[in-house]
Amino acid sequence: MPYKDKSSTKTPWVGQIKINGRKIKHRCQTRKEALEWEAREKARNHNQVEEPAQIRTVSLLEWATAYLDFCEKKFVAKTYQEKKLAFRSLFASGVNPDGPVDGLQPLTILKHFQIEAKKRSGNASNKDRKNLSAAWSWGCNYLNMPHENPFQRTSKQGEIRHDRRIPVLAEFWKVYETATAPQDKRMLLCYLYSGARRAELFQLRWQDVDFINGRIRLSWKKNRLGTLKTAWLSMTDEAMEALRDLYRETGKGKWVFVEPGTAHPYQYRLQWMRRLCDRAGVDRFGFHGIRHLCASILAGKGVPLVDIQQHLRHDHLSTTERYIHKIKETRSVVNALAGLKGTIIQQEGPHEAPKTKTGCQPK
Description:
Blueprint: E1 3-4, E2 13-19, E3 22-28, H1 31-44, H2 60-74, H3 77-92, H4 106-119, H5 122-142, H6 169-178, H7 182-194, H8 198-202, E4 209-210, E5 215-221, E6 228-234, H9 237-250, H10 270-280, H11 287-300, H12 305-312, H13 317-337
Antiparallel strand pairs: 1-2, 2-3, 4-5, 5-6
């Protein structure tokens, strides 16, 4: 529809049309001329259809393959296998891998996650949801997939969360005494004194052990880019002596801790800790439980928080505070409740009127 531009005296009327999302204008002397121009332009372009932005249509299998190839180079083996399992479960549920990505409906995804929650657990289902949602976001950036993420539109499944089992020191020593192989005992000692993550000691090499200065060099990947970080960590004389004895026996290879009968380092070893705990008669705990135990020992001995952060190699002090907070909180509650046996607290109840003293004594 034409409009009048009062700032112009010669051609005050402006005709306007929109073609393929682009607005075209033309100045005229009269409103009639502007209307005629609009009619001619619309007639000339009536066969031109406005084309939407092109969205590349790839199959679900193409998307999964491209993303997993990227993940295999970027993440550690455990993370890669976790993401691979998420796709495998999705396709095993009846979703056609040859179908287009824009044909994947949120309702189909929701039903899949509900089935996985019953078959495996709500925790496992939500972990798949997180991994597939990240994969879709990656596809938006690199495969020009639709930006509306169908995995984020689905709700999470109910989870049953268990607090991480943190052993007391007496339980650790029971497990330590249960271990029979000398290498196993030395590995447990190193976990206790270093507070190392599981993979950090699995990947420990003899070139990372400094016997002269009594320290070891740990390596880990803890950020989104997968950047390898390293740090030297001072160790106790007992831990270094255990490593020295192990070096005398098996120091010819590359790795400090190797699977029996091989020259290869450990990868998982989950059942090992469970068997040791069951044999020792204590509630099960894992490698990370020993890491928390190390933190609790340091906090109990009054080590400053920044020193504990450096020992545990946390990027942020807030992470160390979360490690220590529950320990201090529990200890303060226990200290407040200690010694109640035989104690009578002289206090009126909430619904009891206060007793008043009068000058008259009852007869």
